[in-house]
């Protein structure tokens, strides 16, 4: 008999996590609670509720965390001028502690003894989720299906859905972008497919948030940022919430060809991986914060 009674799953409603719901139910015979976070990924999160209900989920959490994400995670990160390996502005990384925090809060509220996530066994997300969870609740159990099951491809996941009657839009799943993408209010990332070859330049139609420098305006765009205690509180004299600040800067930066990065980084497990990133608003925020520091801090 399984020693897992109730699991809180970080659930997107997509192919991978839909499979994980049924796999947890069948493998561990446990009750599953789903948690879907809106952190500005640009997708509707409410459809995840209907999908979870169709698989018999009784406790479903869908939370809008956009303001908390920027206020309590993105802003402090840029106050510290945090940057990884000289180029990566931690767009994916900084969102994971917030999701882990909410997973633990829901586990405490529902009496769950376990959390689960859909991160693979090769990337850094598994470490981010799990260390964040253990820091907040050392005794929590973690199930990482990608480290346990024998499903190894998108095709095997879709076959599992057909066999187990999991509600998935197969047409959309088959048309999915060739790139592995992750998005939130701070950035969007791309990995895989053509990017596996370091010599290959990304195709222009891959980029979704920004224009190329060649297509950017030939004249300068001026903006004025107001700071309080190291955080932007207004743009061009208009007071804005943290999430609205970042949304605005993403639009301005993207329209001016700001924020693209194409790098090879080191993963925690010892692998190297190429990633392409668009972080237009974050790039502006980091540059502006450093400029403020140059005016106000001594050597």
CATH hierarchy: architecture of the largest domain: 3-Layer(aba) Sandwich
Structural class: alpha/beta
Which series of helices and strands comes N to C? EHEHEHHEHEHHEEEEEHEEH
Strand content: 15-25%
Described by the principal axes of the CA atoms, the overall outline is globular
Major sheet: size, sense and barrel closure?
5 strands, parallel
Strand order of the largest sheet: 3-2-1-4-5
Number of strands: 12
CATH superfamily of the largest domain: HUPs
Helix content: 25-40%
Radius of gyration: 20 Å
Low-confidence stretches are none
Q: What's the average pLDDT? A: 94
| Multimer state | single chain
Helix/strand layout:
Blueprint: E1 6-10, H1 15-28, E2 31-38, H2 47-54, E3 60-64, H3 66-79, H4 96-110, E4 114-116, H5 125-136, E5 141-143, H6 154-163, H7 170-174, E6 180-183, E7 188-191, E8 225-228, E9 231-235, E10 238-239, H8 242-255, E11 260-266, E12 272-278, H9 280-296
Parallel strand pairs: 1-2, 1-4, 2-3, 4-5
Antiparallel strand pairs: 6-7, 7-12, 8-9, 9-10, 11-12
Q: How is this structure best described in words?
A:
- The strands form 3 sheets. The chain has a 5-stranded parallel beta sheet with strand order 3-2-1-4-5, with helices on both faces. A 4-stranded antiparallel beta sheet has the order 6-7-12-11, with no helix packed on it.
- α3 (66-79) crosses α8.
- It has helices at 15-28, 47-54, 66-79, 96-110, 125-136, 154-163, 170-174, 242-255, 280-296; strands at 6-10, 31-38, 60-64, 114-116, 141-143, 180-183, 188-191, 225-228, 231-235, 238-239, 260-266, 272-278.
- The longest helix is centred in the C-terminal third of the chain and has 17 residues, at 280-296.
- β9 (231-235) and β10 (238-239) form a beta hairpin.
- The chain is globular and about 60 Å long.
- The chain folds into 2 domains: 6-174, HUPs (Rossmann fold, 3-Layer(aba) Sandwich), CATH 3.40.50.620; 180-296, Alpha-Beta Complex (Argininosuccinate synthetase, chain A, domain 2), CATH 3.90.1260.
- The model has no long low-confidence stretch (mean pLDDT 94).
- By secondary structure, the chain is α/β, with parallel strands linked by helices.
- The chain has 9 helices and 12 strands.
